[in-house]
Design a protein that fits this description.
seven-stranded mixed sheet; 26 strands; alpha+beta; 10 helices; about 25% helix; about 550 residues; five-stranded antiparallel sheet
């Protein structure tokens, strides 16, 4: 037998099935207003269950925001104070505008971008402007202090605009027609010069070696000693074609050192890729790197595709214009991040897997589920077997591969096999469960927390599995209920799926499909805003939400 306590364990999970039959955790599921089905918010599923639309945009550096139309007008980059935020092209950290002296010996002021992390300066790429006009207001004693401050602020604003114009001019120069072919021509011309230089050095060294061989054609002991000394001197020389009498100990830059310096000055692939989003010419050295404008981040609204096809709006998430609205830094609206948020965790009852046990040899399963009411109204529900009578209600085999169980811990189950449909056909619904409104934990601070009921603590799967035989039927039983929480027991005598060859699949995980039937009307599930249908007397209007219980064998 295999036992598992799912607290902190990824061996078991409960997933919800949306209108497109996608398996999704409850934290990534949405429930559209007055809808009778769920919507998956996963972006990696095909076909997608939601459609997205850009509503607002904001700068991640200065947090300025605008609508989608204004963001497209500004080409998707920050335009604060007529210049916008910039990033360092070397380390991609935020840069600031600095006005300082051009050098320690000069008194002229210069305005440029500077990175506080790697000390990069835009002076290297030629993006800088003079700022000597600030000296007029700093040394003028005749002006009032307040007037001088206003003039200084106006001068700084004008200088920053000139700096932005200088940056835009550099970008336009590199994006001129023919600039790309010019840069390619320069690159090949440089390579041709390097190749000619290398050939000349090889030829000169060959000529010198041939002259030496002619001079030393007459053999003698002195000639042998001289040749050994010359070979040693050539090996210690820093130059390939060093002549006689040149001291190798003289410090001089070698070809290898020069090549190494060039390689250090060459930009990385990531830096080149960032520059190619700005210009059409690839930079050759780090001195050619321009500061990078900061792009806006979009905030999108989501809509349910099934609701849209039915002629309804189906809005699931709609953001606010100000990205800080809802933050505690503001005076009001704390926690109200969205204009609308239809996440299912606020409306749909949450089903969790507490404990379970399996017998791989016989396929027996005993599991304990926990269901909790998240709303402030009463919910009346019950669990039953899967409803596969309608066409398209079955689970596709692809949905049982690479199953996302926990989006926060990125827990994925490689594959699961669907439980045998014959073992669930005869399962009867459990008794009706009435869940009270959710308890506010903040109001119970300082009070003694209630533990689980004793029958839940003492629940054990072993005697339940031992009592099952070949004639036993699957069943759903309510174990305990208290307040907004109930515990349901699931027992399946034979859950193993059999292939067409008569063999059990090799997977270590199988999926048990169930249905959660929620009553609408009569005071039940009012938070969903679903209108009660006209049904005959004595019948109930039920909303059926399908779930899948994943169990690790």
């Amino acid at each position: 037998m295999v036992a598992a306590d799912t607290k902190g364990s990824p061996k078991g999970a409960v997933l919800y099935i949306d209108h497109a039959r996608h398996l999704t955790p409850l934290t990534l599921t949405y429930h559209a207003t007055a809808s009778r089905q769920l919507t998956s918010g996963r972006s990696d599923i095909i076909p997608p269950s939601t459609s997205t639309e850009v509503e607002t945009a904001y700068c991640p550096r200065c947090l300025t925001f605008c609508d989608a139309a204004s963001a497209s007008t500004s080409l998707g980059v920050c335009q604060k104070d007529s210049g916008g935020c910039k990033d360092c092209p070397l380390c991609f950290s935020p840069v600031s505008i600095s006005i300082d002296k051009q050098s320690s010996t000069e008194t002229h002021l210069i305005c440029h971008y500077i990175c506080g992390h790697c000390s990069w300066s835009s002076k290297d790429c030629g993006v800088s402007v003079g700022a000597d006009k600030l000296l007029e207001y700093s040394n003028n004693d005749k002006m009032d202090e307040q007037d001088a401050e206003k003039q200084r602020v106006a001068a700084i604003s004008e200088i920053t605009k000139e700096l932005e114009n200088c940056f835009l001019q550099k970008v336009s120069e590199r994006n001129q027609e023919g600039a790309l072919f010019h840069s390619i021509g320069e690159m090949w011309a440089k390579r041709e010069q390097d190749e000619e230089r290398r050939k000349r050095m090889m030829i000169s060294s060959t000529i010198i070696n041939d002259d030496k061989k002619k001079e030393k054609s007459a053999w003698s002991l002195g000639a042998l000693e001289d040749s050994l000394v010359e070979k040693k001197r050539d090996l210690e020389s820093l130059y390939l074609g060093a002549e006689k009498g040149v001291d190798a100990s003289v410090s001089s830059p070698s070809v290898d050192d020069e090549q190494q310096t060039k390689e250090q000055q060459m930009p990385t692939a990531q830096q080149v890729a960032a520059q190619m989003s700005l210009t059409i010419t690839a930079p050759r050295y780090q001195q050619d790197l321009l500061p990078l404008p900061v792009h806006y981040r979009s905030r999108v609204s989501r809509r349910c595709r099934a609701e849209q096809s039915a002629g309804r709006t189906g809005i699931l998430v709609k953001p606010k214009l100000n990205p800080l609205e809802g933050d505690t830094s503001l005076r009001a609206g704390h926690g109200q991040w969205w204009k609308k948020d239809s996440s299912a965790i606020h409306v749909v009852p949450r089903v969790q897997l507490c404990r379970y046990g399996t017998d791989p040899s016989t396929g027996k399963v005993a599991a304990l589920l926990k269901v909790k009411n998240p709303t402030l109204n009463m919910i009346r529900l019950r669990f039953s077997g899967p409803n596969s009578s309608e066409e398209g209600e079955t689970i596709d085999a692809k949905e049982l591969e690479n199953i996302l169980v926990d989006p926060f811990m990125e827990t994925i189950i490689a594959k699961a096999d669907l439980c045998s449909s014959d073992s669930l056909l005869s399962i009867a619904p459990c008794d009706w469960i009435e869940l009270d409104s959710a308890e506010d934990l903040l109001l119970d601070i300082g009070k003694r927390q209630q533990d689980d009921p004793q029958v839940v603590k003492s629940w054990d799967f072993a005697p339940l599995l031992d009592a099952l035989d070949s004639n036993s039927l699957p069943k759903l039983t309510v174990v305990a209920s208290r307040g907004d929480t109930s515990w349901v027991e699931v027992i399946i005598p034979n859950s193993a799926a059999i292939n067409s060859d008569g063999e059990k699949p090799p997977s270590n995980c199988f999926a048990v499909p169930l249905s959660m039937q929620i009553e609408v009307g009569n005071g039940s599930w009012e938070a969903s805003l679903i209108k009660r249908r006209e049904v005959p007397d004595g019948e109930q209007d039920l909303v059926q939400l399908d779930i899948v219980v994943l169990l690790h064998v």
